[in-house]
Amino acid sequence: MHSGTEFTNFIKRLQSALKRRNINLTSSEIKSSISDLIFGKELNDDLQATCLNALLEKHQSTSLVQLSEPESVLQPVIPPKETENAIVQSERLARDLVCSKASSMGIVLSEADVVAIANQLDYQVDSSVEDVIAEAEALLIAYADHVKQQSKQKVTAMINRVYSHVGNNNTEVSQHLSEGLQQFASDLGVSQQEFKRQAQQALRRLKISKNSA
Questions:
Q1: How many domains does the chain have?
Q2: Is the pTM of this model over 0.70?
Q3: Quick one: which of 129, 125, 122 has its CA closest to 78?
């Protein structure tokens, strides 16, 4: 049985696709209609297309009948300024929602991150608050996973730099120690040769003194 964020997003994508075709179904209606189609299957793009076709076939004709209106009924004309204000207000609400949800999840966002995530929300006038919150949560989880992966990569790179630095230091110290020991051995050899030379000179002087006596 499908559940969780992945399933919620799957249903929301179907719901959005249907709305673009003037078919408004609740999440429960969509779940009921596609339950047999998705049972035991992976929620991929192919399955989504299959479900969308089935939903269109089942509900499109009904929706057309419901949406048909007398020709005498005129739809109100919305002035461009009001439309622009509505868009700005929707964007502001989306950003506020992202900030609020991120705060409740303990996620710290920059202003640029808030705008980027809010722009990904499929925010529509007739969207339910629950659907928008669920989508915001899914986007924030994806963002948190992305940040975590970036942090892990940075930590790995830092550890590699530390290991490399320590390795270089060890090599340098080892080389310095080796050179020091070699110099010590060389100096010791010179000292021994000088000692032998001086000892031989002393012995020769002793022999000369004995012969003179």
A1: 1
A2: no
A3: 125
